[in-house]
Amino acid sequence: MKNAVVGVAVCLGLLGSTALGGFDVKFYVDCAPNKYLNQAAYSSWWKDVKGHVAGGQYDLMQHGDYCGQRMICPSEQAVYSFPPFGERVHWVYWVPNITVDEFTSHSMQGKMRFDYDGVTYTYDFANGGGMVEDSPNVGWAAVTNYEAYNGGVVGTFGHAWWVAYGQYAPTEDAFAARDAEIEGMIGHSTFAEGLIRFAASDQQQMSIKVDVAPEPASFVFLGTALVGLVGSRVRSSRRARARS
Q1: Max intra-chain CA distance, the chain
Q2: In whole angstroms, what is the distance from residue 120 CA to residue 132 CA?
Q3: Helix (H, G, I), strand (E, B) or coil at 16
Q4: Confidence bin at 114 (pLDDT 50/70/90)
Q5: What is the radius of gyration, based on Cα positions, of the chain?
Q6: Can you say how many angstroms the Cα of residue 2 is from the centroid of all Cα atoms in its chain?
Q7: Which of 87, 99, 158, 185 has CA 20 to 30 A from 121's CA?
Q8: N- to C-terminal Cα distance for the chain?
Q9: Is the Cβ–Cβ distance between 21 and 103 less than 8 Å?
Q10: 73, 105, 99: which is closest to 88 by C-alpha?
Q11: How many angstroms separate the CA atoms of 19 and 41, rounded?
């Protein structure tokens, strides 16, 4: 397992594109620095992402350990309160040839799904954001983290498990707690999936699923951090903390 280092490897290539709600929408997945506690690194990541997306040169997990594959390391979906602050898995959407006003009027929605011991869950944003078993109409929320860019609209949403809660300094104990909890993600939770749709055409969806790298361990829900979705204060079923 890596020491939660922000990825720097870059591999290029277009992932996916489809006509969604009458627009040419492109959808990607990557890992990103902790937006709230590592803003400088996140801003650099976002600048790089926008340039590659608008240029049609983006790939699966472009900044991840599994560049070009539908896989993530446990540390690529774990954040914490001490340096280097961890990473999130982020889904990125790009809609060329559209204004922000036009994009907003079509009400894009996002959703995240993940499994635990064979059961698929999502977040019930309509009822406080708690974790619930997934169903087709649960878990959708309006995207909010988007902007005008190069003649189109680009945006992102993502999540991470909050680990080593209560540790605020980069001590030996903090890193030990972080590593134990990150390693404990494997075996019970095996994938994360992002989905998008326009509200007016809810039968049309795009999705990208990534598998968690298989490392034997147990898993404890310690919390979830979300970014980019409305109503995103989420609590897991055990001792949780969330940050939108």
Answers
A1: 53
A2: 9
A3: coil
A4: confident
A5: 17
A6: 19
A7: 87
A8: 26
A9: no
A10: 73
A11: 33
CA nearest neighbour of 13 among 49, 48, 52: 52
**Backbone φ and ψ of 39, nearest 5°:** -60, -40
Three-state secondary structure call for residue 9 = coil
What are 152-174's pLDDT values in tens digits? 999 999 888 889 999 999 999 99
C-alpha distance from residue 120 to each of 66, 123, 169 (Å): 24, 11, 34
Strands 108-116 and 86-96: unpaired
pTM of the model: 0.80
The residue extents of the domains of the chain are 17-227
Using alpha carbons, select from 114, 109, 110, 134 the residue that is nearest to residue 124: 134
DSSP lists the bridge partners of residue 31 as 89
Cβ atoms of residues 184 and 217 within 8 Å: yes
- Backbone φ/ψ region at 22: left (φ over 0), alpha (ψ -120 to 50), beta: left
Nearest to 9 by CA among 40, 30, 27: 30
The residue type of 162 is W
